[in-house]
Specification:
The protein is of the alpha+beta class. It contains 15 helices and 22 strands. Strands 4, 5, 13, 14, 15, 16, 17 and 18 form an eight-stranded mixed β-sheet that branches. Strand 8 and strand 9 form a beta hairpin. The protein is globular and about 60 Å long. The N and C termini lie far apart (about 70 Å). Bound molecules: flavin-adenine dinucleotide. Flavin-adenine dinucleotide (FAD) binds next to helix 1, strand 2, strand 8 and helix 10. Flavin-adenine dinucleotide binds next to helix 1, strand 2, strand 8 and helix 10.
């Protein structure tokens, strides 16, 4: 394995968060080595992007590659309620008439390869098939990583900063017991891929559709991908989905019976994958950085996939962490305060998305809300596109509270 023996930064994991943070640091002339345990392309769930990824993709020089890709264009999100009634699409362009309002539905195996190749093109030392066994510390300061390659050879690599982008493996969360679970969002998911499912025409072809089960116990995602594939999955409380059930396959079929709008859409389609399942608990680390180390993407926190925010959050935290690291390297300061200087604002944004998720599960009617407060249509769309990091959006939630109070009083 050819690598720089004294990089400024080592990155654990080559998913979207790891690829982003490493590319943006290398762009500034610093030496970055990235270790990914798998060989790409590898399968990953998480296919629907949201528009605010545009700005990070732009900084990564990924936009032209995305435009030239076969990925389906996504212009909107649509909701189907428990009685099968379909909402008007939330067209992102109505809110922001800019090309950033068109985003993509990606096959993650392909997207993640593109991101990692792009990192290598920007000078990142990318090493696939290399697992990080441990983060090395001197006192409470991270000083590097111990790695093992596919031949079983182990080595220690020293660096000024260690970035944990290991996804839900969450190396440092586990080591320091930083995981803060979110008991309100203890969910699971079961999904599969189908070829030949129904898709709308024109601008609606690539819409993500979120469809409630008839008994409101959960919801289905319907995500059209290229090659005539649709990703179709159900999310519900973990116990409901997994306890006392016969098999994931039987549960998937049974839940689909409770969502005729999905069943109809794939009636003429063929399932082309096994049924897959995961627990999909929301969690967050109690801190995003320490002395010489930073967490990004799912290695920092994971939020319920209802509004497809995972890749955006991976890209955004990757970008914010990269800026903090570059500034820190310039100043010779890789303290917790410097490396985590983005945490508070980022967590506020994540909390806004979380609140929107919880309102959906509480049965809150966005249609009713927008009829009562039409001035918030833009704010709701901002939240849905991932433009989360601005305090003025808190007025939306203040008015959701006032509508709930009015409803409780009447
Ligand atoms: C059911 C479900 C549906 C979802 N739907 C969506 C969606 O529609 N849209 C969306 O944006 N997001 C979605 N997500 C979320 C999305 O999948 C994640 O948020 C996103 O992949 C996070 O990117 P990441 O780079 O942080 O982690 P990952 O993409 O998981 O990448 C982490 C990488 O680290 C590597 N790694 C781990 N440990 C080590 C180690 N020790 N050494 C070296 N390498 C290591 C792994 O192999 C992996 O490649 C969904 C998630 C779930 C569970």
């Amino acid at each position: 394995m050819q690598l720089n023996e004294s990089p400024n930064v080592v990155v654990i994991g080559g998913g979207p968060a790891g690829a982003t943070v490493s590319t943006l640091i290398a762009q500034q002339g610093y030496r970055v080595e990235l270790f990914e345990r798998d060989r790409f392309p590898r399968y990953h769930i998480g296919e629907s992007l949201i528009p605010e990824t545009y700005w990070v993709l732009k900084r990564l020089n990924m936009l032209e590659k995305m435009k030239a890709s076969p990925f389906i264009h996504k212009y909107s999100v649509q909701f189907v309620n428990a009685s099968g009634k379909q909402s008007a699409p939330f067209y992102f362009h109505d809110n922001k008439p800019h090309e950033c309002s068109q985003t993509w539905q990606v096959q993650r195996s392909e997207f993640d390869v593109m991101m990692l190749q792009n990192a290598a093109e920007h000078g990142v030392g990318v090493h696939e098939g290399v697992r990080v066994l441990d983060v090395l510390f001197e006192g409470d300061r991270a000083t590097g990583v111990q790695i093992v390659d596919e031949e079983g050879t182990t080595r220690e690599i020293r660096a000024d900063v260690v970035v944990d982008a290991s996804g839900q493996s969450s190396m440092l969360i586990n080591r320091f017991k930083l995981r803060v679970p979110d008991p309100e969002l203890n969910k699971g998911a079961i999904w599969a891929y189908h070829k030949g499912g129904y898709r709308d025409n024109g601008k609606n072809e690539g819409a993500t559709i979120v469809l409630s089960l008839q008994d409101k116990q959960g919801w289905f995602w319907y995500i059209p991908l290229h090659d005539d594939i649709v990703s179709v999955g159900v999310v519900a409380d973990f116990d409901y989905l997994f306890k006392g059930r016969e098999s994931h396959e039987a549960t998937y079929a049974a839940e689909m019976e409770k969502c005729p709008a999905v069943k109809e859409r794939i009636a003429a389609a063929t399932r082309v994958s096994p049924v897959k399942a995961t627990k999909d608990y929301t969690y967050r680390a109690s801190q995003a950085a320490g002395e010489g180390w930073v967490l990004v993407g799912d290695a920092f926190g994971f939020l319920d996939p209802l509004y497809s925010s995972g890749v955006l959050l991976a890209l955004k935290s990757g970008q914010l962490a990269a800026d903090a690291i570059v500034e820190g390297l310039r100043k010779g300061d890789t303290s917790q305060a410097q490396l985590g200087n983005w945490e508070a604002g980022y967590v506020e944004g994540m909390n806004r998305m979380r609140r929107l998720v919880c309102e959906y599960y509480d049965g809150f009617s966005f249609g009713q809300f927008i009829r009562r407060f039409p001035e918030h249509r833009g704010g709701i769309t901002d939240l849905l596109i991932g433009d989360l990091f601005k305090p003025e959006l808190d007025q939306v939630f203040a008015d959701i509270d006032s509508l709930k109070a009015e409803q409780a009083a009447s």
